[in-house]
Task: inverse folding
């Protein structure tokens, strides 16, 4: 997740730009996928000129950007630059956020997996290994993966544990671009995708679709358009108050204390399909050069510094 962190010097300009219902709706629409101005005007039921003026205001404060992309001729497409805006009321002397560590992990850097076909591992320019062959997930080139897909199973990552000695973890956030896995693509194809941290389930998201038919903003053009194209950016979080999915509290008993982060040399994050999942529709996991979001796997660990006794 790309976060725009504001301070007192720049918060007012951004606040003025988003203090408008049409511009807020534009940001919401673009958070799902890129659109051109005609598409935005149609969804907002506004004249083209009004929509273009609102897009320009968001561009001026760099909340969105416009790029020329090939299509039916060359067209201007708007994309959102940030997934979250935060106002920082306290900063350290060098301007960095206090008591937070952010780590990004390439999707090909998994340390363990259990894969069942349909499956595949895809680089920026070609398949890695053979399609529908779980052995491909053990190829050395897997580290260059930009798309992983499988019908059943899991992949596990191990993030470095950067919790300072003597500190207590207060919140762990994990963000990934995900969707279901069907042959080619299928818009009505639910799948229950689960995330575990240090062996503890922190959330299950039911993906509604294997999204395709419209090219992902970052998806390479050699990748056929009738294949999976993009996913949705999902935020899984565990805090002292419980587990959350996209900010909504889940009915799960675990809290961050159950992860025992202070006792582990790494933080294990596993993504997959439960054996008893109601909707076993597989998953697609996107890297920074596939799909709609320029990121790999993003984990943020927040903590409090314990007072010395």
Result:
């Amino acid at each position: 997740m790309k976060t725009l962190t504001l301070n007192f010097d720049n918060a007012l300009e951004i606040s003025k730009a988003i203090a408008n219902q049409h511009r807020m709706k534009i940001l919401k629409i673009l958070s799902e996928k890129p659109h051109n101005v005609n598409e935005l005007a149609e969804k907002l039921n506004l004249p083209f000129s009004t929509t273009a003026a609102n897009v320009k205001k968001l561009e001026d404060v760099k909340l969105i950007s416009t790029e020329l992309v090939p299509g039916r001729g060359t067209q201007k497409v708007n994309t959102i630059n940030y997934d979250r805006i935060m106002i920082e009321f306290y900063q350290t002397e060098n301007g960095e956020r206090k008591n937070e560590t952010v780590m990004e992990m390439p999707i090909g850097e998994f340390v363990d997996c259990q894969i069942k076909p349909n499956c595949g591992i895809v680089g920026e320019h070609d398949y890695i290994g053979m399609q529908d062959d779980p052995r491909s997930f053990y190829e050395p080139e897997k580290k260059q993966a930009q798309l992983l897909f499988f019908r059943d199973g899991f992949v596990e990552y191990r993030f470095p544990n950067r919790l300072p000695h003597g500190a207590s973890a207060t919140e762990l956030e994990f963000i990934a671009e995900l969707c279901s896995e069907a042959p080619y693509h299928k818009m009505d194809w639910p799948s229950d995708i689960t995330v575990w941290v240090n062996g503890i389930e922190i959330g299950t998201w039911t993906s509604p679709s294997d999204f395709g038919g419209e090219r992902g903003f970052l998806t390479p053009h050699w990748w056929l358009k009738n294949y999976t194209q993009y996913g949705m950016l999902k935020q899984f979080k565990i805090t002292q108050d419980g587990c959350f999915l996209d900010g909504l509290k889940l009915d799960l008993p675990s809290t961050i204390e159950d992860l025992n982060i202070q006792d582990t040399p790494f933080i294990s994050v596993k993504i997959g399909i439960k054996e008893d999942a109601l909707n076993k529709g597989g998953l697609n996991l996107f890297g920074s050069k596939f799909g709609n979001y320029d990121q790999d796997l993003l984990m943020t660990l927040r903590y409090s510094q314990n007072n010395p006794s």
